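Quick note —
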Amino acid sequence: MAQITLVEAVNLALARAMADDPDVVVLGEDVGRDGGVFRATLGLLDRFGSGRVVDTPLAENLIAGMSIGMAAEGLKPVCEIQFSGFAYATIDQIINHAGRMRHRTRGRLACPMVLRTPCGAGIHPPEHHSESPEAMFAHIPGIRVVYPSSPRRAYGLLLAAIRDPDPVVFLEPTRLYRLFKEEVADDGVALPLDTCFTLREGTDITLVSWGAMVYETLQVADELAAQGVSCEVIDVATLKIMDIDSILASVARTGRCVIITEAPRHCSVASEIAAALADEGLLTLLAPVARVTAPDIIVPLPRLEQHYLPGRAQILDAIRKTLEFA
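Predicted structure written out below.
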């Protein structure tokens, strides 16, 4: 198996999906000749041609609308929005058409489209390139929201998203695109959607994360393991539809939970997980649920970005306070 980065895994999954299914079409700004702003679609134009790899105008609402139309007519479009901060222009199409297609037509039509977009801070671009809008997308009925945290999961989850008969927003952690490599087999095997992945088993505390923050969460878990603290690490992966049962089962074993995300705190996915634990797992908790999040501010410009993103120190502090609670 080849050792590849996360962005290479995305490219590999797109190529595999296009080779396996002639109805899969890729479209977006610069996805063809330039191979995308992060080169996630590099080489696809040469391999599959301009009929299946389509360079679009700089018009995100148009890209989403074209994708919905293609999906309604039987294609499986995978559209790229260059940065998540540009995806807000697609919300009208995603809410009013993609998410409602199956309901509106009483099941006659589906909308098997995927909207891919790089997501999150940490690579020093302007603030409107760096948001983490997963909670906003997760609030839309009728769509799935998927947020991988490693090359292997990016490959398997993107294949699953493309094969899903309903619309999927696929958020790709920009900071992890080339941060590390992992062995990925190009075997065409999809990973399950709507399922959490337990990355470390533990007995003392459950750490719940997704996307880029899984990287720091695993580092902290390894650091604490050397000190005798056993952390169970859960990668949520599919934020909607969320596998809350796996999180509840883990917290029932450990009694303690810290949720780690780089999204703002207010009305976040972390808040939803904490509420679910209060609703359904309160009697298993030995300490209050802690949340490590970014502040409720606009992502700052590059010189201050390191003060915005939560890091290992904040994660360690939250874990120690949760473990010390009696």
